[in-house]
Amino acid sequence: MTRIAPSLLAADYLKLGEEINRMESAGVDYLHIDVMDGHFVPNLTFGIDMVAQIAKSTRIPLDVHLMLAEPERYIEAFANAGAAIISVHVEACPHIHATLKVIKQTGAKAGVVLNPGTPAESLTSVLSEADLILQMTVNPGFGGQSFIPETLTNIEKLAIWRRENNYSYLIEVDGGINQETAKQAKQAGVDILVAGSYLFQNTNLEEAIANMKK
Length: 214
Ligand code: DX5
Ligand code: ZN
Known about the structure:
CATH superfamily: Aldolase class I
Low-confidence stretches: none
Radius of gyration: 16 Å
Order of helices and strands: EHEHEHEHEEHEHEHH
CATH class: Alpha Beta
GO molecular function: D-ribulose-phosphate 3-epimerase activity; metal ion binding
Strand order of the largest sheet: 1-8-7-6-5-4-3-2
Pathway: Carbohydrate degradation
GO cellular component, one term: cytoplasm
Enzyme class: isomerase
CATH architecture: Alpha-Beta Barrel
Number of domains: 1
Bound molecules: D-xylitol-5-phosphate, zinc ion
Number of helices: 8
EC number: 5.1.3.1
């Protein structure tokens, strides 16, 4: 069953509570929260207190995507704030195996993220440690960009390796996901679809979610 994770980056920030309630009523599986530091990516977004307030206001599990240099410094804080999943970029983590262990020790699920230019092979030695692998299907930093189809190769490999070795990680995609690209991602083996603009700009949310799951 495909799971849906709306990205709050595309929400109306002045109505954040209402936006979250709308997603909760539509039955989404996670709320995806993009944390950017203006350094690892050229944009700034939400911080720890924001995640803590959101966690208190909803029962939807929070899927926290850290686009930070040195994300290790903030893992405990985001876990205490209420993150259910914490994902770090492999490009930002020289000790990715240890970092995934640190995330798990907090009780959160441990995710590792691949930029479009990073080969799936860079994760070979942490595949048994990861609870989730997030393939970026755009270059991280901004919502509303176009899906990069070449990233599907990584997803296909991750799905094959999981099948062959009985790994338990979930595969998630993030960036440029709409009805059409969701179909391609699912065919490649994806479990969780992140979508920002496609869901928040849709007047019929239930229909948009149903289209993504189809
Ligand atoms: C981009 C973020 C995404 C973004 C996706 O760096 O990681 O989560 O919100 O937005 P859309 O779905 O509009 O491409
Ligand atoms: Zn994201």
